[in-house]
Amino acid sequence: MEQLKGNLASKKEEEPKQVDKNCLFCKIANGQLPGSRVLYESDGIAIFKDIRPAATHHYLVVPQKHVSDPKTLRRGDAELVERLVTCGQEFLVKQGGDVSETRLGFHWPPFNTVSHLHLHVICPASSMGWLASLIFRPNSFWFVSASWLIDRLKKM
């Protein structure tokens, strides 16, 4: 498994992972689902491909411990979201993606299909079709940008 080096190299998870045995993304992120493939794993974060990619690069960046969804996050979770973004961007660049052409965001409940916090990293955003552009429309009722979520958490 490829390990990226960057801002997260010194960040260590201090508590044991809290995994929901019934959560699909907990199983994938922790290597417990046969046939799934984690592309990156470090310091409590995992990255894998979206099963319905909206662009050439469409990855999901998730905490390996169970976190329900962005609506449940609190002020202290801003750092987690920032780490998800940093990991996603670093991984994307390693894969040949252009960060300036990237859409980063989260589906807002009840419009999420899996109740496990997951950051969508989509690149190039300009290549998304009409439907994908609607599904991943930034700062709509159903999809919020990572920067919007971080700002919201810091203002709590």
Automatic annotation (TrEMBL):
The keyword Nucleotide-binding applies. Keywords: Hydrolase, Nucleotide-binding. GO terms for molecular function: hydrolase activity; nucleotide binding. A motif (Histidine triad motif) lies at residues 116-120. Residues 24-133 form the HIT domain. The keyword Aminoacyl-tRNA synthetase does not apply. It catalyses: adenosine 5'-phosphoramidate + H2O = NH4(+) + AMP. Belongs to the HINT family. This is Adenosine 5'-monophosphoramidase HINT3. It comes from Elysia chlorotica (Eastern emerald elysia).
